[in-house]
Amino acid sequence: MTLDRRQFGLGAAATGAVMAATGRVRAQSAAPLKIRISWIVVPASLAPMLIEKKDVLKNYGKSYVIDAIRFQGTPDIISGLASGDIDVGGLAFSAIGIAIDNAKMEDLRVIGEEVQDGVGDYQSNEFMVLKDSPIRTVADLKGKVLATNVMGSAVDVAMRSMLRQNKLEAPRDYTIVETSFPTMKAMLAEKKVDLISAVPPFSHDPGLRQIARTLFTQRDAFGTTQLTAWVARTGFLRKNRAVMVDLMEDVIRGIRWYEDPANHKEAVDILSRLMKQPPERFDWAFTKRDQFRDPNGLPNIEALQKNLQKQKEVGFLKNDIDIKKYADLSIVQEAARRLK
Fold it and tell me: Where are the domains of the chain?
Protein backbone atom coordinates (compact mmCIF):
# COMPACT_ATOMS: atom_id res chain seq x y z
CA MET A 1 0.00 0.00 0.00
CA THR A 2 2.66 2.53 1.00
CA LEU A 3 5.19 3.47 -1.66
CA ASP A 4 7.29 6.05 0.08
CA ARG A 5 7.67 7.41 3.58
CA ARG A 6 9.62 10.43 4.77
CA GLN A 7 9.78 11.73 8.33
CA PHE A 8 11.60 14.86 9.37
CA GLY A 9 12.62 16.74 12.48
CA LEU A 10 11.93 16.88 16.19
CA GLY A 11 12.00 19.78 18.64
CA ALA A 12 10.84 21.13 21.99
CA ALA A 13 7.21 22.02 22.63
CA ALA A 14 6.09 25.61 23.02
CA THR A 15 6.73 27.36 26.33
CA GLY A 16 4.21 27.08 29.15
CA ALA A 17 3.26 30.74 28.83
CA VAL A 18 2.40 30.39 25.16
CA MET A 19 0.51 27.16 25.81
CA ALA A 20 -1.57 28.85 28.47
CA ALA A 21 -2.33 31.78 26.20
CA THR A 22 -3.44 29.62 23.30
CA GLY A 23 -5.08 26.76 25.16
CA ARG A 24 -2.53 24.20 23.98
CA VAL A 25 -2.39 21.15 26.15
CA ARG A 26 0.82 19.39 25.20
CA ALA A 27 3.39 19.48 27.99
CA GLN A 28 6.59 21.39 27.47
CA SER A 29 8.65 18.24 27.73
CA ALA A 30 6.44 16.17 25.40
CA ALA A 31 7.72 15.21 21.99
CA PRO A 32 5.95 16.85 19.05
CA LEU A 33 2.99 14.91 17.77
CA LYS A 34 3.79 12.90 14.64
CA ILE A 35 0.97 13.49 12.16
CA ARG A 36 0.83 10.88 9.41
CA ILE A 37 -0.40 12.54 6.21
CA SER A 38 -1.00 10.88 2.84
CA TRP A 39 0.17 12.16 -0.52
CA ILE A 40 0.02 10.95 -4.11
CA VAL A 41 1.60 13.49 -6.46
CA VAL A 42 3.05 16.99 -6.16
CA PRO A 43 2.24 19.81 -6.47
CA ALA A 44 -1.39 18.81 -5.85
CA SER A 45 -0.45 17.02 -2.61
CA LEU A 46 0.62 19.31 0.23
CA ALA A 47 2.50 17.12 2.71
CA PRO A 48 5.89 16.66 0.99
CA MET A 49 5.99 20.30 -0.07
CA LEU A 50 5.42 21.47 3.49
CA ILE A 51 8.30 19.34 4.69
CA GLU A 52 10.58 20.96 2.12
CA LYS A 53 9.93 24.41 3.61
CA LYS A 54 10.20 23.79 7.34
CA ASP A 55 11.82 27.20 7.73
CA VAL A 56 8.43 28.75 6.81
CA LEU A 57 6.53 26.60 9.30
CA LYS A 58 6.52 28.27 12.72
CA ASN A 59 5.10 25.33 14.68
CA TYR A 60 6.95 22.47 12.99
CA GLY A 61 9.15 20.55 15.42
CA LYS A 62 7.46 22.28 18.36
CA SER A 63 3.94 20.92 18.57
CA TYR A 64 4.02 18.56 15.59
CA VAL A 65 6.09 16.88 12.86
CA ILE A 66 4.86 15.37 9.59
CA ASP A 67 5.24 11.79 8.46
CA ALA A 68 4.45 12.08 4.74
CA ILE A 69 3.29 8.73 3.40
CA ARG A 70 2.93 8.19 -0.33
CA PHE A 71 0.09 6.15 -1.80
CA GLN A 72 -0.64 5.00 -5.34
CA GLY A 73 -4.27 6.10 -5.18
CA THR A 74 -7.13 7.17 -2.97
CA PRO A 75 -8.64 3.71 -2.29
CA ASP A 76 -5.54 2.84 -0.24
CA ILE A 77 -5.84 6.17 1.59
CA ILE A 78 -9.39 5.30 2.61
CA SER A 79 -8.11 1.98 3.93
CA GLY A 80 -5.35 3.78 5.82
CA LEU A 81 -7.84 6.11 7.46
CA ALA A 82 -10.11 3.20 8.34
CA SER A 83 -7.29 1.21 9.93
CA GLY A 84 -5.73 4.17 11.74
CA ASP A 85 -2.48 3.90 9.76
CA ILE A 86 -2.76 7.54 8.70
CA ASP A 87 -4.21 10.55 10.50
CA VAL A 88 -4.90 12.98 7.65
CA GLY A 89 -5.84 11.88 4.16
CA GLY A 90 -5.76 13.89 0.97
CA LEU A 91 -8.85 12.63 -0.87
CA ALA A 92 -10.45 13.52 -4.18
CA PHE A 93 -14.12 14.46 -3.89
CA SER A 94 -15.03 11.09 -5.38
CA ALA A 95 -13.13 9.24 -2.64
CA ILE A 96 -14.75 11.37 0.06
CA GLY A 97 -18.14 10.26 -1.24
CA ILE A 98 -17.10 6.60 -1.35
CA ALA A 99 -15.61 6.74 2.16
CA ILE A 100 -18.84 8.15 3.60
CA ASP A 101 -21.42 6.28 1.52
CA ASN A 102 -19.75 2.93 0.83
CA ALA A 103 -17.22 2.54 3.66
CA LYS A 104 -19.70 4.06 6.18
CA MET A 105 -17.05 6.32 7.74
CA GLU A 106 -19.60 8.55 9.41
CA ASP A 107 -16.90 10.15 11.56
CA LEU A 108 -14.93 11.47 8.59
CA ARG A 109 -14.58 15.26 8.42
CA VAL A 110 -13.35 17.58 5.68
CA ILE A 111 -10.88 19.92 7.40
CA GLY A 112 -9.02 21.78 4.65
CA GLU A 113 -8.35 21.89 0.95
CA GLU A 114 -5.50 20.95 -1.35
CA VAL A 115 -6.56 22.08 -4.84
CA GLN A 116 -9.64 23.20 -6.75
CA ASP A 117 -10.18 22.70 -10.48
CA GLY A 118 -11.91 25.08 -12.85
CA VAL A 119 -11.66 28.26 -10.79
CA GLY A 120 -11.63 31.36 -12.99
CA ASP A 121 -8.77 31.24 -15.47
CA TYR A 122 -6.72 28.71 -13.50
CA GLN A 123 -5.82 25.33 -14.97
CA SER A 124 -8.44 22.62 -15.45
CA ASN A 125 -7.88 18.91 -16.06
CA GLU A 126 -7.97 18.11 -19.76
CA PHE A 127 -9.41 15.29 -21.82
CA MET A 128 -7.30 14.93 -24.94
CA VAL A 129 -7.35 13.26 -28.35
CA LEU A 130 -4.69 13.01 -31.04
CA LYS A 131 -4.25 16.16 -33.12
CA ASP A 132 -5.07 14.28 -36.33
CA SER A 133 -8.03 12.45 -34.79
CA PRO A 134 -11.38 12.79 -36.56
CA ILE A 135 -12.97 13.29 -33.12
CA ARG A 136 -14.09 16.92 -33.00
CA THR A 137 -17.00 16.87 -30.55
CA VAL A 138 -17.96 14.86 -27.49
CA ALA A 139 -20.65 13.17 -29.57
CA ASP A 140 -17.89 11.79 -31.80
CA LEU A 141 -16.72 9.61 -28.88
CA LYS A 142 -19.54 7.15 -29.53
CA GLY A 143 -18.03 3.73 -30.08
CA LYS A 144 -14.58 4.86 -28.92
CA VAL A 145 -12.19 3.70 -26.19
CA LEU A 146 -11.54 6.18 -23.36
CA ALA A 147 -8.74 5.99 -20.78
CA THR A 148 -9.22 6.78 -17.10
CA ASN A 149 -6.86 6.38 -14.16
CA VAL A 150 -9.31 4.56 -11.86
CA MET A 151 -12.99 3.79 -12.28
CA GLY A 152 -14.92 6.22 -10.09
CA SER A 153 -12.03 8.67 -9.66
CA ALA A 154 -12.55 12.43 -9.83
CA VAL A 155 -11.51 12.66 -13.48
CA ASP A 156 -13.49 9.51 -14.34
CA VAL A 157 -16.66 10.98 -12.85
CA ALA A 158 -16.10 14.25 -14.74
CA MET A 159 -15.51 12.40 -18.00
CA ARG A 160 -18.65 10.28 -17.62
CA SER A 161 -20.66 13.34 -16.65
CA MET A 162 -19.56 15.18 -19.79
CA LEU A 163 -20.49 12.23 -21.99
CA ARG A 164 -23.83 11.86 -20.21
CA GLN A 165 -24.59 15.51 -21.05
CA ASN A 166 -24.15 14.41 -24.67
CA LYS A 167 -26.45 11.38 -24.20
CA LEU A 168 -23.60 8.86 -24.17
CA GLU A 169 -23.41 6.17 -21.47
CA ALA A 170 -20.84 3.49 -20.68
CA PRO A 171 -20.70 0.68 -21.63
CA ARG A 172 -23.56 1.10 -24.09
CA ASP A 173 -21.95 3.87 -26.17
CA TYR A 174 -18.24 3.73 -25.35
CA THR A 175 -15.60 1.65 -23.58
CA ILE A 176 -13.48 2.76 -20.61
CA VAL A 177 -10.09 1.24 -19.78
CA GLU A 178 -7.95 1.91 -16.72
CA THR A 179 -4.31 2.96 -16.98
CA SER A 180 -2.00 5.12 -14.88
CA PHE A 181 -1.49 8.79 -15.73
CA PRO A 182 2.20 8.30 -16.74
CA THR A 183 1.23 5.69 -19.37
CA MET A 184 -1.61 7.61 -20.99
CA LYS A 185 0.54 9.49 -23.51
CA ALA A 186 1.90 6.23 -24.90
CA MET A 187 -1.56 4.67 -24.99
CA LEU A 188 -2.84 7.61 -27.03
CA ALA A 189 0.20 7.77 -29.32
CA GLU A 190 -0.10 4.04 -30.08
CA LYS A 191 -3.84 4.48 -30.74
CA LYS A 192 -4.77 1.95 -28.08
CA VAL A 193 -7.25 4.51 -26.79
CA ASP A 194 -9.02 7.45 -28.43
CA LEU A 195 -9.14 9.84 -25.47
CA ILE A 196 -7.06 10.24 -22.32
CA SER A 197 -7.44 12.06 -19.02
CA ALA A 198 -4.57 14.54 -18.56
CA VAL A 199 -3.85 16.15 -15.19
CA PRO A 200 -0.87 18.21 -13.98
CA PRO A 201 2.01 17.56 -14.21
CA PHE A 202 1.36 15.11 -17.06
CA SER A 203 -0.87 17.51 -19.01
CA HIS A 204 2.09 19.90 -19.32
CA ASP A 205 4.36 17.30 -20.92
CA PRO A 206 5.74 18.93 -24.12
CA GLY A 207 5.74 15.53 -25.83
CA LEU A 208 2.03 15.14 -25.16
CA ARG A 209 1.33 18.66 -26.39
CA GLN A 210 3.07 17.85 -29.67
CA ILE A 211 0.72 15.00 -30.51
CA ALA A 212 -2.54 15.83 -28.72
CA ARG A 213 -5.22 18.51 -28.38
CA THR A 214 -7.86 19.18 -25.77
CA LEU A 215 -11.38 18.04 -26.58
CA PHE A 216 -12.93 19.28 -23.30
CA THR A 217 -11.91 20.11 -19.73
CA GLN A 218 -13.17 19.20 -16.30
CA ARG A 219 -14.44 22.79 -16.04
CA ASP A 220 -16.63 22.12 -19.10
CA ALA A 221 -18.11 19.09 -17.38
CA PHE A 222 -18.35 20.27 -13.79
CA GLY A 223 -17.70 23.96 -13.42
CA THR A 224 -15.66 24.28 -10.22
CA THR A 225 -14.44 21.07 -8.59
CA GLN A 226 -13.15 20.74 -5.05
CA LEU A 227 -10.66 18.32 -6.51
CA THR A 228 -8.82 17.18 -3.39
CA ALA A 229 -9.26 18.02 0.28
CA TRP A 230 -7.77 16.98 3.61
CA VAL A 231 -9.93 14.76 5.80
CA ALA A 232 -9.51 13.28 9.27
CA ARG A 233 -11.61 11.30 11.73
CA THR A 234 -13.39 12.98 14.61
CA GLY A 235 -11.61 10.99 17.32
CA PHE A 236 -8.20 12.17 16.13
CA LEU A 237 -9.43 15.76 15.77
CA ARG A 238 -10.93 15.89 19.27
CA LYS A 239 -7.80 14.47 20.86
CA ASN A 240 -5.38 16.72 18.97
CA ARG A 241 -7.36 19.84 18.11
CA ALA A 242 -4.81 22.35 19.41
CA VAL A 243 -1.99 20.71 17.48
CA MET A 244 -4.14 20.55 14.35
CA VAL A 245 -4.69 24.30 14.56
CA ASP A 246 -0.89 24.68 14.69
CA LEU A 247 -0.58 22.43 11.64
CA MET A 248 -3.23 24.25 9.64
CA GLU A 249 -1.68 27.59 10.54
CA ASP A 250 1.55 26.31 8.96
CA VAL A 251 -0.34 24.86 6.00
CA ILE A 252 -1.67 28.33 5.23
CA ARG A 253 1.82 29.77 5.60
CA GLY A 254 3.12 27.12 3.22
CA ILE A 255 0.40 27.70 0.61
CA ARG A 256 1.04 31.44 0.65
CA TRP A 257 4.80 30.92 0.35
CA TYR A 258 4.50 28.61 -2.67
CA GLU A 259 1.94 30.86 -4.36
CA ASP A 260 4.09 34.00 -3.94
CA PRO A 261 5.66 34.88 -7.34
CA ALA A 262 8.78 36.04 -5.49
CA ASN A 263 9.40 32.42 -4.46
CA HIS A 264 8.64 30.86 -7.84
CA LYS A 265 12.16 29.76 -8.75
CA GLU A 266 12.79 28.08 -5.41
CA ALA A 267 9.33 26.48 -5.49
CA VAL A 268 10.02 25.04 -8.94
CA ASP A 269 13.42 23.78 -7.78
CA ILE A 270 11.69 21.95 -4.91
CA LEU A 271 9.25 20.28 -7.31
CA SER A 272 12.13 19.35 -9.59
CA ARG A 273 13.91 17.69 -6.69
CA LEU A 274 10.80 15.84 -5.50
CA MET A 275 9.84 14.64 -8.97
CA LYS A 276 13.44 14.00 -10.12
CA GLN A 277 12.87 15.91 -13.36
CA PRO A 278 14.40 19.11 -14.81
CA PRO A 279 13.03 22.35 -13.28
CA GLU A 280 11.92 23.67 -16.67
CA ARG A 281 9.24 20.98 -16.65
CA PHE A 282 7.55 22.80 -13.74
CA ASP A 283 7.52 26.44 -14.82
CA TRP A 284 3.69 26.27 -14.78
CA ALA A 285 3.46 25.34 -11.11
CA PHE A 286 1.89 27.86 -8.69
CA THR A 287 0.79 30.09 -11.58
CA LYS A 288 -2.52 30.44 -13.42
CA ARG A 289 -1.41 27.38 -15.43
CA ASP A 290 -1.75 25.38 -12.22
CA GLN A 291 -4.91 24.57 -10.27
CA PHE A 292 -6.27 26.95 -7.66
CA ARG A 293 -5.38 26.90 -3.96
CA ASP A 294 -7.35 28.93 -1.47
CA PRO A 295 -4.95 31.28 0.39
CA ASN A 296 -6.71 30.47 3.67
CA GLY A 297 -6.84 26.70 3.10
CA LEU A 298 -10.65 26.69 2.94
CA PRO A 299 -12.36 23.98 0.90
CA ASN A 300 -15.19 24.99 -1.42
CA ILE A 301 -18.05 23.18 0.29
CA GLU A 302 -20.67 24.40 -2.20
CA ALA A 303 -18.65 23.02 -5.12
CA LEU A 304 -17.99 19.79 -3.23
CA GLN A 305 -21.73 19.30 -2.70
CA LYS A 306 -22.37 19.67 -6.44
CA ASN A 307 -19.48 17.33 -7.28
CA LEU A 308 -20.94 14.62 -5.06
CA GLN A 309 -24.33 15.02 -6.70
CA LYS A 310 -22.71 14.47 -10.12
CA GLN A 311 -20.99 11.40 -8.71
CA LYS A 312 -24.37 9.99 -7.69
CA GLU A 313 -25.85 10.79 -11.09
CA VAL A 314 -23.25 8.68 -12.91
CA GLY A 315 -23.78 5.76 -10.54
CA PHE A 316 -20.86 5.81 -8.12
CA LEU A 317 -22.86 6.82 -5.04
CA LYS A 318 -26.04 5.18 -3.82
CA ASN A 319 -27.25 7.96 -1.53
CA ASP A 320 -27.33 11.73 -1.33
CA ILE A 321 -24.68 13.18 0.99
CA ASP A 322 -25.13 16.46 2.84
CA ILE A 323 -21.44 17.32 2.93
CA LYS A 324 -21.92 20.10 5.49
CA LYS A 325 -22.56 17.36 8.06
CA TYR A 326 -19.12 15.95 7.27
CA ALA A 327 -17.12 19.19 7.31
CA ASP A 328 -15.33 20.76 10.27
CA LEU A 329 -13.83 24.04 9.11
CA SER A 330 -13.40 25.46 12.61
CA ILE A 331 -9.77 24.35 12.81
CA VAL A 332 -8.60 25.95 9.57
CA GLN A 333 -10.71 29.04 10.26
CA GLU A 334 -9.05 29.48 13.66
CA ALA A 335 -5.66 28.99 12.03
CA ALA A 336 -6.41 31.65 9.43
CA ARG A 337 -7.47 34.13 12.12
CA ARG A 338 -4.07 33.77 13.75
CA LEU A 339 -2.42 35.04 10.57
CA LYS A 340 -4.54 38.15 10.15
Answer: 2-117+225-338, 126-222
